[in-house]
Amino acid sequence: MDKKIAVYARKSVFREDSISIESQIEMCGYETKGQDYIVYQDNGYSGKNTDRPDFQRMLSDIRSGKISKVIVYKLDRVSRSVLDFSELMDVFQKYNVDFVSATEHFDTSNPMGRAMLNICIVFAQLERETIQQRVVDAYASRSKKGFFMGGKTPYGYSKAPIVIDGVKTSMFVQEPDEAADISLIYQLYSKPSSTLGDVLRELTARGININRRGKYWNTARLSEMMRNPIYTTNDISIYDFFKAQGSNMINPPEEYNGVTSQYLFSGTNTNRKTWDLSGQNVVIAPHRGFIPPDIWLACRRKLLGNHQVKNCKAKNSFLSGKIKCGNCGYALVVRFSQRSKGHVRYLIDTGWSDYHCCTHKLPTIHADDFEAVIIEKIREKLSELTIQADSDVKDELLEKISNIEAQISKIEKEIEGLVDKIMLPDIDKTTVKYINERIAKLDSRKVELSRECDKLRADRQKRSETDFKVLHNVMDKWDELTFDDKRSVVELLIEKILVFPDRIEIQWKV
Fold it and tell me: pTM higher than 0.70, yes or no?
């Protein structure tokens, strides 16, 4: 088979100062010295990687032994990645293919050409990384000036054009009907004894459990929305709250005049920004909020750290917390029904019964029968595994976790009591200030405890993974295990159990 020369050309986007595909091919044609060549071209593809159709076709022809030399207008037409280019050079060397850059006069048929080529590709990648850093810096700079930085428009607002510091951008404008829904939700949740479930049930009772954008309300959506500060105005109480949480306050406190609102942008903290506020950037926004600061703060404080409450004490089934509806993802919980022979346990889909967002009703599921099925599945999975069931052996880590959870629960009750007091009429400003400071300190302590608790849980999980090596014949001792031991087996082996109308799917950890 006669090998041919390959001419490769690439152009990412149209720019007046960039060379066209046709011009690249013409320049490369001079290097062929009149020999026949095959043209490969990718128009509209970036050089950040080699995932381009004609480039891959050229590689396929190289591996098939059809190509003897590859000519490009400039080496960055091939790739700006040192790793990609290094791997490409390995392919060229393996199949005895020379590489030539028409304008940079690199020819890999000699050692000097190969050395210079490697040096230049390093600088090509440096240029690309410099451009990427400029983009990141520009984003941070624009966000700190209050510019709209893209993304989905939040419920309750639409977008309108605006000019800030001579730059065209967008701002939020209130949508009256959606804003009315938001105001109702905040009003309902701000009541001291109200829960997210209570709010959802009230929305369902009013026939508005589907919002005006066609999405079902659920507790996760309600929680996320009420954590967002774009709905409230930017008075000094909002500044004090975020400052106490460790957020980066881009604007000084004197600019918090209660006129406009604020944005929350990711900063040094890479956690979900509406959950962990430490290290996040808070900047004054050009739009006006419509939720009063006291109402927003009352709701926000109730939501502090809610995502960290992971280990609810299982009482009614050793599978509690693991069983989910395969359609809506909500938990199946144990409910009791009084019969002549005593209480009967059923599994109920909360997405259907409580939140009315599930579109597929599950059949009647008896908890005893369901547990028996799962036990048999575990038996199959762990046919020769065992677990130590000595109830006299104390798990020190579990005991520490329980103590910390008790402290967190105590702090939450104190915060709840203080929130109730701050909502009382005729309360003076001095008392409000003291309560706010006390809540901030309590919440800071709660965050520390929650982090410590998460670390202990991680350590305990590692310990469980080590203990897993000694598990065998566990099912022979199943009836002898305590409730907590059974929970430990389930926690070690099962990620979650998905229940569909016609089947059960177990997602195993092993």
Answer: no
